[in-house]
Amino acid sequence: MTRIAPSLLAADYLKLGEEINRMESAGVDYLHIDVMDGHFVPNLTFGIDMVAQIAKSTRIPLDVHLMLAEPERYIEAFANAGAAIISVHVEACPHIHATLKVIKQTGAKAGVVLNPGTPAESLTSVLSEADLILQMTVNPGFGGQSFIPETLTNIEKLAIWRRENNYSYLIEVDGGINQETAKQAKQAGVDILVAGSYLFQNTNLEEAIANMKK
């Protein structure tokens, strides 16, 4: 089953409550929240207090993506704020196995993220521990970028390893997702589609989500 996670990075921040209600009414599966620190990526976005306010305003599980230089310092705080999934970048975590363990101890699902230039092989030692693998299909930091098709190779490998080893992680994709690229990602083995502009700028949201789930 394909699951949809609208990225709040593309929402109208002056109408964030209305935007979240619109997504909830349309039946999305998660809300994807990109947390950026201006160090690991060149941008600043949502913080802990904002995540807490969003969690209070919706029943949709929050999929929190930490684009932080030292994510382990903030895991407990984001879990307490209401994150259902907390994902960290393998590139930012020298002790990724320990970091995933810390996430799980909070009660949140543990995700690990790959940048476009990072090979899937960098995760082989933690695939049995991860609840989710997020493949970035653009360079992280800003919305509105074009999908990088070469990243599909990583997704295909992750899908094969999951099947061959009976792993249970979900595969998520984020960056440049629209009707066309969603199909490519799904064919490669993706379970969760993160989409920003394609959903928030769509006048027929329900139809767009139904098409993506197909």
UniProtKB/TrEMBL annotation:
Q: Which Gene3D superfamilies match?
A: Aldolase class I
Please tell me where a divalent metal cation binds in this chain: 32, 34, 65, 174
Q: Which UniProt keywords apply?
A: Carbohydrate metabolism, Cobalt, Isomerase, Manganese, Metal-binding, Zinc
Q: Which GO terms describe its molecular function?
A: D-ribulose-phosphate 3-epimerase activity; metal ion binding
The record's Pfam families line, in alphabetical order, gives: Ribul_P_3_epim
The cellular component terms of Gene Ontology attached to this UniProt record, alphabetical and capped at eight, are: cytoplasm
Pathway, according to UniProt? Carbohydrate degradation
The cofactors named for this UniProt entry are: Mn(2+); a divalent metal cation; Co(2+); Zn(2+)
Give the binding site residues for substrate.
Answer: 7, 65, 141-144, 174-176, 196-197
Which transformation does this protein catalyse, written as a reaction? Answer: D-ribulose 5-phosphate = D-xylulose 5-phosphate
Q: What is its EC number?
A: 5.1.3.1
Cross-referenced InterPro entries, in alphabetical order?
Aldolase_TIM (IPR013785), Ribul_P_3_epim (IPR026019), Ribul_P_3_epim-like (IPR000056), RibuloseP-bd_barrel (IPR011060)
Cofactor binding note: Binds 1 divalent metal cation per subunit.
Protein's UniProt keywords contain Metal-binding = yes
Q: Which GO terms describe its biological process?
A: pentose catabolic process; pentose-phosphate shunt
* Active-site annotation: 34, 174
Family to which the UniProt record says this protein belongs: Belongs to the ribulose-phosphate 3-epimerase family.
Reported function = Catalyzes the reversible epimerization of D-ribulose 5-phosphate to D-xylulose 5-phosphate.
HAMAP family (alphabetical): RPE (MF_02227)
Q: What is this protein called?
A: Ribulose-phosphate 3-epimerase
Which species expresses this protein natively? Listeria cornellensis FSL F6-0969
Lineage start: Bacteria, Bacillati, Bacillota, Bacilli, Bacillales
Which gene produces this protein?
A: rpe
